[in-house]
Every structure is written in C-alpha cells, then in structure tokens.
Amino acid sequence: MATLEINSLRKRFGTIEVLKGIDISLEKGGFLVLVGPSGCGKSTLLNTIAGLEGISSGEIRIGGAVVNDLHPSKRDIAMVFQSYALYPNMSVAENIGFGMEMRGVPRAERDQAVASVARTLQIEHLLSRRPSQLSGGQRQRVAMGRALVRRPSVFLFDEPLSNLDAKLRVDMRVEIKRLHQTTGTTIVYVTHDQIEAMTLATKIAVLKNGELQQVGSPSEIYNRPANMFVADFMGSPA
Ligand code: ADP
Ligand code: MG
Prior knowledge:
Layout: E1 4-13, E2 16-26, E3 31-35, H1 42-50, E4 57-62, E5 65-66, E6 77-80, H2 92-102, H3 107-121, H4 136-148, E7 154-158, H5 166-183, E8 186-191, H6 194-200, E9 203-208, E10 211-216, H7 218-223, H8 228-234
Parallel strand pairs: 3-8, 3-9, 6-7, 7-8
Antiparallel strand pairs: 1-2, 1-4, 4-5, 9-10
Helix pairs in contact: 2-3, 2-4, 3-4
The structure holds adenosine-5'-diphosphate and magnesium ion.
Organism: Bradyrhizobium manausense
Function: Involved in beta-(1-->2)glucan export. Transmembrane domains (TMD) form a pore in the inner membrane and the ATP-binding domain (NBD) is responsible for energy generation.
Keywords: ATP-binding, Nucleotide-binding, Transport
C-alpha cells in the first residue's frame, strides 16, 4: 500500500483551475521530487497534501486513510518551508521541542527526542543557541529538526534550499539525502532545480500548468522524456 496516494485531485482558486486532475502514488520510504516552472502549481499541490489548502475535487490518502477533510494538525505529515520561521526568543532545543511541549509530552521524553533529532542533523553543539546566533544552513537544519521530531509518515519540503547560497545548497542537499537514507522517511520535495531533482529523487513528477507531464525514476525522466517540455525542462539530450 502506498503511503501517499493522490487521485484525480483538482484545485480551483475562484474560476482559475490551478491543479487539473493530479494522480500520484508514493510508496513508503520513497523520495518524490515535484518539479516544474514557477507558477505551475507545485506549492499548491504540497499545501493540499498538508491540508493548508482545501481541494475542489478528488482524493488524498495518507497511510491508506482519506484525509480530504482532516485538519493539518491531524494529518500524519510535517512541512518544511523555504522561509524557516524559528521562534527568535527560544533556544534551538526549545524550538525543536516546542510542538511536543504544546501536546503535553513530558520533559524527559521531549529532551530525549530533541537529542536524537539533533544527533541525526548534527546540530547537538547548537542546542542552547538562539536562532540569531546561527547561520542560514544551521537555521534550515533546526527547521528540519522541528519537522523531523514529529516522526511524520510523510515529510513535505517546499523549496527548502532556495534561500541558501550555492555552496550551502550543495551541502544541504547531501544532508537531506543522508536524512532520507538513514531515517527511511517518505518525502515529497518541491524544487525548480533540475539537479536537485536528479540527485535526490527516487521518483520525479514534472508539472506544467497544473498537469503532470510525466512521473518516473530520474533516469526514465532524463533518458526517456515523455514530451518536449519534459526534455527541455530536465535538460535531456536532444
Ligand atoms: P509554484 O509553487 O509552482 O510556483 P503555486 O502553486 O504557488 O506555483 O501557484 C500556482 C498558481 O496558483 C499561480 O498562478 C498562483 O498565482 C495561483 N495561486 C496560488 N495561491 C493562490 C491563492 N491563494 N489565490 C489565488 N491564486 C493562487
Ligand atoms: Mg512555490
């Protein structure tokens, strides 16, 4: 059974249809990268999975259960955005543990979970710092920690690296790949960066104007693009 299944998903804003019948299935532990030009509907699709946007028709299943009408907090997901809003007056440890604190998780259990996530992300030495004392890459790691600590079935990333400089972007790409390999989390990752897509994905979905052009492994997409748009966008050999 797929961990994430999207069937005939449509989304309108007013009279404009932004997602025009999307079908996606992602197995447990899969890394789906959603690519496409700016404005094609990538963030909207991610937001509907997260429950931040309602859908016009279709179905979204997480772990087999239909979540169409489920509040974001009740969905088994966690999302990392491109702007990582950390709480400025809390330490890194408090930022990561905040969600658990709100849910009434006891202190000892919380500390243990925070320590374990910090180990995974290699930010143990930063736990007592404030966000203002961190670099961009470190902040992004803390934002990932905050999501990871929830142990979601599905991890959603919306262009998490696009605010970082080129060198850091490559480092973080390696980091995210390692995170995926060591935790076996199921990930949906949005980017408009083809290289990021090729290096991270187990499966790539190419979106254009709210319609999927092709879904396949990186090598399928690159070597056997379904149409000119995919070939162009992924930079496949002519
Ligand atoms: P991407 O993330 O691929 O750049 P988006 O999903 O953000 O694209 O946007 C897809 C389209 O939907 C764009 O044309 C955008 O203007 C429109 N859109 C996004 N959010 C809203 C909204 N809340 N209200 C109206 N239109 C929106
Ligand atoms: Mg976007």
